[in-house]
Amino acid sequence: MSRKKSNADTRDLTLHFNHDMLVVHRRYEVVSIINDILIGLWFLAGSICFFYSSLMMIGTWLFVIGSAQMLIRPVIRLSRHFHLQRLPQSSGDF
To answer: What range(s) does the YrhK domain occupy (predicted)?
Structure first.
């Protein structure tokens, strides 16, 4: 049972992005990656501090800092969304 594919079935999806959109997306992506690295460092350092009773208070504060930075993650994404919304629309797909 062979069926011949129509042109609509074989077309590739082509998306056209505005240069400004790509620049904004890349900048926010870098900020997000740096934020994720810092979150990992705070939690790792906090975990190590919990091995020593004298550093337990510092470890607790590092966990608080890491938790606060986890709240920054959606703020970065939301900021990127609003920034992209303010850019002039291109004549492409978006």
So the answer is: 26-81
